[in-house]
Design a protein that fits this description.
Blueprint: E1 5-12, H1 14-32, H2 42-54, E2 56-62, E3 65-70, E4 75-80, E5 84-91, E6 99-103, E7 108-112, E8 117-123, E9 128-132, H3 136-144
Length: about 140
């Protein structure tokens, strides 16, 4: 089994990072209006942690697996290519938003930080994984290779 990469994409969630930046700015403005208490730093830390966890996503397709990493790597998903039964180009509904979502009564998981295009992987046990991508055709081609 070789580990050479067939496809690698790093997506930046500009919309999410913009929201995080605006919330961060609001928190900083609020913190400046009163005396600084240690507990008042909690929202600041939570926003920074959320940005680190969901601000970007990388997808790496190797000969034997697909690796999805959200942010700095707290959330990861590895799918063995041998487990993939079907590949479908899909479009996520706008109201699903971005990040990590469960769908189809918990049998599916979506990973996305930008846009609504995705590839849905149907796995052997009937579970599905949706991977958001800017270029679904290129990801599909890498998965089929």
């Amino acid at each position: 089994m070789t580990r050479s990469s067939r496809y690698r994409e790093i997506q930046i969630g500009w919309a999410l990072l913009t929201v995080f930046a605006l919330v961060l700015l609001l928190i900083l403005i609020i913190l400046r209006t009163g005396p600084l208490q240690p507990v008042s730093l909690v929202p600041l830390i939570l926003v920074l942690l959320a940005a680190a966890m969901f601000g970007f996503m990388s997808v790496n397709v190797t000969d034997d697996a697909v690796q999805i990493t959200m942010g700095v790597g707290f959330l990861r998903r590895r799918v063995e290519r041998a487990d993939i039964r079907r590949l479908t180009v899909v479009r996520n509904p706008w109201y699903w938003g971005w990040g990590v979502r469960l769908y189809s009564a918990g049998t599916g998981t979506m990973y996305s930080v930008h846009g609504f295009n995705a590839i849905e992987l149907t796995l052997g046990e009937g579970r599905t994984v949706r991977i958001g991508t800017r270029d679904p055709e290129r990801l599909l081609q890498a998965l089929r290779a």
